[in-house]
Amino acid sequence: MDQTLGDFIKALRNADVRVSSTEVVDAHKVVDLVGYTDREMLKNALALVLPKTADEKGIYDYTFDRFFKFDELDEMEMADRASAAGEAGGDTEAGESTGQEGGGEGQGGGGQNNMAEAGSGGAGAPSDTDAAQQGEMREHLSPLSQMVLSGDRAGISVAMAEAGEAVGLRNIHIFTQKGLYSRRILEHMGLKALNNDITALRKRDNANAHELAERLRKGREYLLSQVRDYVEQQFLLHADVDGSHLREDILSKSRLTNIERRDYRMVQEMVRKMAKRLIAIHSRRRKVYDRGALDIRKTMAKNHAYDGVPFDIRWKSVKIDRPKVVAICDVSGSVAKVAHFMLMFLYSLNEVMPKVRSFAFSGRLGEVSDLFKDSDVETAMAKTLAEWGQGSTDYGRSLQDFAELALNDIDSRTTVIILGDARSNYGDPGAEIMKKIYERSKWVMWLNPEEKNTWNYADSVMRKFQPYCHQVQVCNSLTHLERIVSSVLRSAT
Amino acid sequence: MTLVKPIQSPGGKIDSIDAIRAGFETLGYITNPQIATSIYLAQNLEKPLLVEGPPGVGKTELAIATSKYLGLPLVRLQCYEGLDESKALYEWKYGKQLLYTQILRETLGEVLQGAKGLSESMKRLHQFSDVFFSEQFLEERPLMKAMRAPAGAVLLIDELDKADQEFESFLLELLSEYQISIPEIGTIKATIKPIVFLTSNNTRELSDALKRRCLHLYIPFPDAALERRIIAARVPDVSVRLRNELVAFIQELRGLDLKKLPAVSETIDWARTLLLLHANTLDPEMVRATLNVILKFQDDIEAVGAQLTTLTAEALKAAERPLGAL
Fold it and tell me: Fewest beta carbons less than 10 Å away: which of A56, A353, A489, B5?
């Protein structure tokens, strides 16, 4: 298995492109066919095999460019180094004055440039005898120090990549590990020896040695920044999404009431993803029924028994059955947050559940379907809260309102979802209306955001509603919501 | 461009991506590197090619050009709701089958003549060759025709998203194994694997199972440089100036918020229209008069009509700017 390709596919998967194993096999065949030599062609070719939607193509382009950037950098640096070496050669021939300039620049420059110039300066600055002396000193230094001194950027890149490989940089998961991995890589590259070299050179009573030590120190700084960049880059490629996977995982299991505002965006994104998944599963559940055309084949096959006389006629048919959902949500106090996410969920499912009617209540009840259909969830929820969120919860009154508004629309195809904590402030819960809803509908589901052991405690009247529900469930996290909505879809088709 | 493993193909025409690009260009189909690569891989990996993109960017045209380029027959299957295997794959010749049963009944006497007892009659009946469900009574439909084409074929399954989910699943066997199963006869394998193109306008998401088996090519609207080349190839009589101007105009329209954006086919139509009207350059009045060639909704025409003068002026300016090598 080709390691580079494997890593690239991992990076793609991290970026939410779905790559199945068949596609991995295809990708290998593609690489066998086109090779790594022509970058553009490789990109075009893999684009046909790995990403399979227009969205994924965009992600693919971005990931490809980022992933194979490192290689390109390498080539560039090779070229750089060749030219730098050329200059350095020229400098020595030209003599002292230009050499001094080179050295000066080397001290002034920072970052990447620093390296090349320090390299050229190294060859150019000292006079012949000094150069010889330094050259001799250099021979005793560690390989890393020599590489740093000669400005071998390609060599450093390679060593860095090798060290990264050796310490398992690919397994980096969360950003706090960046420091750890940087240090490990540096250690693996031989930072210790480099440090020792610097100390040793400083101790020597020799101007040349001190100069060399100074250059090494600058080189080390460059090295540190390079390694940091490298780790950062690899982190983004391999771990960024892992981190958010972890967060998503935690968020999906934590109580919706505890989710903070700053996480709302992420939760919304997650709801969108979940809804998309459910749509993908359930949009396939269309049944075929009553299309109207005569199915000659089936009729013939069926009627062979009757001597080919078309006696038992078969029709081709399509049956499209979509769930009708009525959601009744308590929007008082803490239940409101759960209601928020549930409505968000239901309306994201527009494609497979076009008939969602929603009602909100606390003191009184009103229909909010249009609000959610026309504006985005945030504004709709704010408006709902402003309009219906006032007053203490009154289940009896609200159910009465509901009966007047929509009881007649509930038929044997309707699933009714009620979300509330069943705390009616010791008022009449209106269980008789619940009974009517129960009798008319296909399915009644009560979702309670409170844990089961607090039900029926104090003013909670779950036990009065429970007989009139087909299903009663705790619902206070995204995972719950997904499970519930999925079951609504399944029972409806 | 080094190719590790060039394979033998009809007339060596698909040996390299450059050859494909050049070859398609002579047929008037201007490819970009992605499209050419897709043809190359479809042939070399023997995988079907799923082409997606907005309507009118040349998805179907690509299959037609490929069949012309390779000199293979094009078998086209247009998908629609309700399409099933009896229309796509095969059908029994029911009329003939009925006749056959009648003839059989008449000859039954001869066959059973002299048979003693029921068991011997049955035995004789079994010996009698059973041709009721045999190839003689098989009516070929496009898919089977493509599979059994003696020299290979280009199979175009057009607008697959319009067909039902079931049909999509039904295609899976054909797409991965190049074989089809007929319950009464058995499995039929392709003699020479056809080059399969599937096109989709994305009215519905295709299943993962299908996508997994295909190479996936997305053709977006072309950029200005490519579109100029396409117009040059398709409507060669249009002057360079007008060509650049009309392409620039169309490119601008695609940046607007319209119900249906003009596609390449509309650009070509428009170029032909302007040619007929002997236009040398775009002017707002001419554009207004011919706007219905490129925009297909009254709302769009009105929206664009309101800002026509500015759009035309900008298009004229944009046409002056060099676009790099064409």
Answer: B5
